[in-house]
From TrEMBL:
Protein family membership: Belongs to the YjdM family.
Organism, scientific name: Roseovarius nubinhibens (strain ATCC BAA-591 / DSM 15170 / ISM)
Origin: domain of life: Bacteria
Pfam families, A to Z: YjdM, Zn_Ribbon_YjdM
Protein name: Putative alkylphosphonate uptake protein, phnA
PANTHER family named in the record: PROTEIN YJDM, PROTEIN YJDM-RELATED
Domain Protein YjdM N-terminal residue range list: 4-33
Classification via InterPro entries: YjdM (IPR004624), YjdM_C (IPR013988), YjdM_N (IPR013987)
Domain Protein YjdM C-terminal residue range list: 48-114
Amino acid sequence: MSDTLPPCPECASAYSYQMDALLICPECGHEWPAETPGTAPEDVGGIIRDSVGNALADGDTVTVIKDLKLKGSSSVIKVGTKVRGIRLVPGDHDIDCKIPGVGQIGLKSQFVKKTAD
């Protein structure tokens, strides 16, 4: 690994430090994985994968793999909920979708599994 660490991708702070396999920003608290040789994404955006490692694409159908509580609401997205026509977006919540009964929402790819239509 080089002597210089990359700046924080959230706030661009130059004071990031490494703890085990993570890089941490002391200013905003953001944590992200430290890239080791051979694990860098193939392109700038990287490939978004579901919870079992399948590559996701715009328009795919996914199934929620665990109950998800919605912040600021008493609603829950139940395990097994099918979400059709997802759209991939950059960021922490990398799936943009519309769930019947809930509405427009952002999901994390680690909580979904790609399904056949």
